[in-house]
Amino acid sequence: MQLIKKIKLKFYKYQATGNDFIMIDNRANLFNSQNTDLIKKLCDRKFGIGADGLILLQNSTHSNFEMWYANSDGKQSTMCGNGGRSIVAFAQKLGIISTDTSFNAVDGLHHAKIKNNNLVELKMNDIETISKINESVFEINTGSPHLIKFSSEINNINVYDEGKKVQSFNEYLGKGINVNFVEQINQHTINIRTYERGVENETLSCGTGATAAAICTILKNKLIDGNYTIQLNTLGGKLEVKCEKISSQNFKSVWLCGDAQFVFEGNIEL
């Protein structure tokens, strides 16, 4: 009987305000990103490594590296802000970069800076379209699509049930949308909880969601055009979003800032 030779996969685990990722150095192009079943298994918290998503660091001809991202459902997804900050920390660990970098992701080129104490600042894309549904609900794409719902006492909200319900709305069927519940503390500080599509559950933090919520907070408060910094309290820790408001539909120089930390590394047999 012929024995099947198992392959050992080297992986790294990172987390950014509790949003956790399996990181793989795929510059040799050995990992099959189309194997959704494998990705789903690796992200499984009972039978795999466990993570909200899996990220491949790959070669790029246009920047220092390329980021390829899949949610825990195994499918390639749109931009992940906390994942972007984590891959920057990972690239530094691999010796690819020092403190400043640029990398390609599914939504284009991103710049980033690594500061002291694991702080990573990631430049997000400019925002050019924001849909105001009513005074408390906004829809915005910050690299991933987000629904922002302002509410009071968000700790009492069943984020899983409410987020899941939104996925059944006709306009989101088949594509889904991330749902963020935001509680305003003051004009420049908010609490946020997020239901992430692809994970299909609440996560401890969402970077593109934090970015979306910060921008919508500025709009909700009808702040004049100018530079702003919004502090965010997620279940996994604190984030900061810096941006410049050009108009009610246009924000530029958008930076997502927060910790991104190495957790552990290992090998798993496939």
Q: What count of helical segments does DSSP give?
A: 4
Rg, Å, rounded: 18 Å
Given helix and strand content, the structural type is: alpha+beta
Q: What is the strand content?
A: over 45%
Strand/helix succession: EEHEEHEEEEEEHEEEHEEEE
Features:
270 residues; alpha+beta; 17-stranded mixed sheet; 4 helices; 45% strand
Verbal overview:
With 270 residues, the protein is of the alpha+beta class. Helix content is 16%, strand content 45%. The chain has helices at residues 36-43, 81-93, 159-167, 207-220, and strands at 8-16, 19-25, 53-58, 65-71, 100-105, 108-114, 119-123, 130-134, 137-141, 145-150, 178-186, 189-196, 201-203, 226-234, 237-247, 250-259, 261-269. It has a 17-stranded mixed beta sheet that branches.
